[in-house]
Design brief:
heterodimer; A: alpha+beta; Histone, subunit A; 3 strands; 9% strand; B: alpha+beta; 3 domains; nine-stranded mixed β-sheet; three-stranded antiparallel β-sheet; 41% helix
Chain lengths: 100, 477
């Protein structure tokens, strides 16, 4: 357990937190590193299964091609669309400026 | 040292469906902000995307038309990143299993025909539109475009000049328009192009460091941006510098590329299979059905125009460059008996001149194919002369009247009555004794003067062939 838990580094934790836009306290990094490592070690149990002859699958059901016809259906009322918006102007969502 | 450029292009083409790729919202352009959105394209929790069959049909048709091999099984994947135009925080795209691969299309270059490879075609959803406020530190978000079906067509780095890149784009654009799977409007963003370009010493195998160019909204701008970038990279290397890998934006006003502002962040998209969509399996029968529905494509149509109508390679190329233009020409040919070469000249000359002058597309032409055919029939049967036909054409464009109506109203019927023309000839010769003497003394170039004078007298209506013949007869006698 101890040895496998070291597979994820503190750098990985900081990188994942940054990708997920999560703020984590510097003091918590080592705790999360240990906890994440433990979770990954648990999942590694799956490696024990012999999957040499099993094709990789993204889905468990043997079905494919759930398709719809190209038909326009009513959209939402803009008031409902904007109901959750922290800020709006007219019918636009407003967000902090994202460029320059 | 002599350098050569290596260019690869990525085209994002909006598929011409009525509804979005994973939900029933309309894809119509220009609606008020946030009126074409629903819980699916807004990325609300608990919703399920369902793939639009027509979008798949269109992408498969494009794959067949560009000689790609359609994968038996392809799969959608999530591309994760945060940006306000992407409400789900991931874009549904395709990654390791694209729809099709290994295609090519043929372009004309100065050195002859050339094949440009197509690496892959995959389907994905478009993002929303951001408008950055000029004054306040805010950006406006309109999610109407979110979920619009796109296909991304990635070329091999096979092009060596901006002209080749332009030829590739025009050919691809023409194919998509012939298939009618994309409206091809570059201004509205339904056909967008990013270019990867690097340079290397001629003869060297390895690629140089590339720059990615964005923000070019016309074929001309793609060519100009590439030409600028090739010159810039060459200057950097000749000054002993190094090209940095970066994304640069084309500024069409300043006529240069500039590095994109913003954080230089290595992307980490963490692609993984989209769990909410089933695998897409293209059975051979599906592909065969679509193959049978493909229209005649630009190359085939061009070849037919040269063989069936006896047109030059050049004329056939111009006429088939756009499906609507080729349709127009064939509609003219279907209802007039005149020479194809003459019809081709009228379409590529007078008609396209008129459309260019007024900024119209062929489908907006004020002169219909039937009306032009009627005009050519009048010309061919000798009712009007070529000169008068030009006048009638202008009048048709102006008033929309039928050519025979204009000819009747203005009394423009060609005069082929020899006695009438003879009378005008006699008058002209009598009025210009000095020129007659000159002509008979060897100044045969004066013939043009006499013809002009006779035409003037008959208000342009005299049959020019007959005028020439009668003048010669009298003068050379």
């Amino acid at each position: 357990m101890e040895e496998k838990a070291r597979k994820i580094s503190e750098e990985d934790i900081r990188h994942v937190a940054q990708l997920a836009r999560l703020h984590i306290e510097p003091g918590d990094v080592s705790t999360f590193t240990r906890q994440m490592g433990e979770i990954l070690s648990y999942v590694e149990k799956l490696d024990e299964a012999d999957t040499r002859d099993v094709p990789a699958a993204a889905h468990v059901l043997p079905i494919c091609n759930a398709l719809r016809e190209d038909e326009v259906r009513p959209s939402l009322d803009p008031e409902d669309v904007l109901k959750n918006a922290p800020k709006r102007d007219g019918q636009d969502f407003l967000v902090p400026r994202v460029i320059g | 040292m002599e350098f050569e450029a290596v260019i690869g292009l990525e085209v994002h083409a909006q598929l011409k469906t009525r509804s979005k790729i994973f939900c029933g919202c309309s894809t119509a352009f220009g609606a008020p902000p946030n009126t074409h959105v629903c819980p699916v394209c807004l990325g609300m929790p608990g919703v399920l995307p369902v793939l639009n069959k027509k979008a798949v049909d269109f992408a498969i048709m494009t794959s067949i038309a560009t000689n790609c091999t359609v994968a038996r099984e392809s799969r959608f994947a999530r591309k994760n990143y945060f940006y306000p135009d992407l409400p789900k925080n991931f874009q549904i795209s395709m990654y390791e299993l694209p729809l099709s691969e290994h295609g090519w299309l043929e372009i004309e270059t100065a050195a002859g025909k050339k094949r440009v490879g197509i690496t892959r075609i995959h389907m994905e959803e478009d993002a929303g539109k951001l408008v950055h406020d000029e004054f306040a530190p805010v950006s406006r978000v309109d999610l109407n475009r979110t979920g619009t079906p796109l296909m991304e067509i990635v070329s091999e780095p096979d092009m060596r000049t901006p002209e080749e890149a332009g030829a590739y784009l025009r050919k691809l654009h023409a194919i998509l328009r012939y298939l009618d799977v994309c409206d091809g409007n570059m201004e509205e963003g339904s056909f967008r192009c990013d270019a990867n370009v690097s340079i290397r010493p001629r003869g060297q195998e390895a690629f140089g460091t590339r720059a990615e160019l964005k923000n070019m909204n016309s074929f001309k701008n793609v060519e100009k941006a590439l030409a600028f970038e090739i010159a810039r990279q060459t200057a950097v290397i000749e000054d002993g510098g190094r090209v940095v890998q970066e994304t640069r934006l084309w500024d069409a006003n300043a006529m240069k590329t500039l590095p994109m502002r913003g954080k230089e962040e290595a992307h980490d998209y963490r692609y993984f299979p989209e769990p909410d969509l089933l695998p897409l399996v293209v059975f051979p029968q599906w592909e065969e059905e679509l193959k049978a529905r493909l229209p005649e494509l630009p190359d085939a149509r061009k070849a037919r125009f040269t063989s069936q109508y006896g047109l030059s390679d050049y004329d056939a190329g111009v006429l088939t460059s756009e499906r609507e233009l080729a349709d127009f020409f064939e509609a003219v040919m279907a209802s007039c008996k005149g020479e194809p070469k003459q019809a081709a000249n009228w379409v590529t000359g007078a008609l396209m001149g008129l459309l260019n002058a007024r900024g119209l597309s062929i489908s907006e032409s004020p002169v219909s194919a039937l009306a032009l055919a009627a005009l050519l029939t009048l010309l061919d049967s000798g009712v009007i002369s070529g000169k008068i036909a030009k006048t009638v054409f202008e009048e048709m464009a102006e008033t929309g009247k039928a050519p025979d109506v204009i000819v009747k109203e203005k009394g423009l019927v060609q005069v082929s009555d020899a006695s009438v023309i003879e009378k005008a000839v006699e008058e002209v010769l009598a009025e210009n004794p000095a020129e007659v003497t000159g002509y008979r003394g060897g100044k045969t170039k004066l013939m043009g003067f006499f013809v002009g004078a006779v035409m003037k007298k008959t208000r342009g209506k005299a049959n020019p062939g007959l005028v020439n013949e009668l003048l010669k007869k009298r003068l050379d006698a």
